[in-house]
Amino acid sequence: MKIFASLFALAAVPHALGGPAINTGKVPLPERLLHHFPNGTWAENISVRPNGNLLITLSTPTGSVMQVKEPWTANPVVEEVFNFDQWVDRLIGIGETTRDTYVVVGSRFYSPDAIASPVETTFCAMELDFSKDPNKPKARLIARLPEAYLLQSVAALPWDRTTVLISDQYLLKPRYNQSDWTPSPGQVWRLNTVTGKYSLVMANYPEMTSIGAKGPDVGINGIKIRGNWFYWGNTDNSYVYRLKIDKKGAPVPPGKPQVVTHFDTFWNDFTFGPEDEDILWSAGWNQVVAVSSAGKVVVVDGVGTSNNLTFPGPTATGFGRHHEDRDILYVTGNLYSIPDVPIDGKIGGWIRAINTTGFRF
User: What InterPro entries does this protein map onto (predicted)?
Assistant: First the structure.
């Protein structure tokens, strides 16, 4: 395992972000840097293990999953737990299926640049399994999905956790030279992680597609399933939607998406919490936002608050699962600093922790 020493640390304190007594819940919420990866490292997504450790997917420079051990401590250890370069150059989404078992998705890419095209027919879903040995995970290829455009986020069906839904959409086509800028269709795949069989379960939804409003990026991005509702954010049009699904993960007729909220930000991967709370917390455009069940949006950290330079390029969020950090929102990101021009951003991945204790709309 490769171990990366944190570049920044707070003074050693047993509770890294302080307890409720010193946190008023006022915006900007208190936060701290857990780890800054070497420049050129893109931290893309996050999943929180049952033991509280964080799993982070990297898109550059390697297709690796990193682990942050005991992130509630003052100086958590960050280490590589598995490198998927046998199958992919970049990892994107990660989601837990059965206990301490995860699906990760990725592909080969033509370039290590931030904006690059995936290589045709190389997208695949892989499994990372800690269930037999929490310290030595096993990995396997579940399935190749050659029809995919850009597999993004992964969410297991709550009632059948061996079946996952995977979002898929990209403005760039899987080819080296972009001659056709017509957006690919936004769609969602259903994958049986036991058999490897997959099929399209949602397609032909304008609410899932990009029209290039924010450049060469995606429409449907982060996804989550809560109850019988499938939620997704559209990065391109700044909406969050939900759609009722059946036991197979397919839309319940008439299959019309409902608007959860509209807010001009770069909707990325999100989570609900803390614990059973119905607040949606999402990475945004150099900011982190919270969304109430009524659709009210509050910028809780980053641009739009007095703490406006600390969240460059956030990519994903996830709540702690240990008794020490159940109110702590962990956030990954991919930029070293906020650039004057978005396309000029310098890649430098990081992980930050936000104390959400006491937050109310």
Answer: 6-blade_b-propeller_TolB-like, Hetero-Diels-Alderase-like
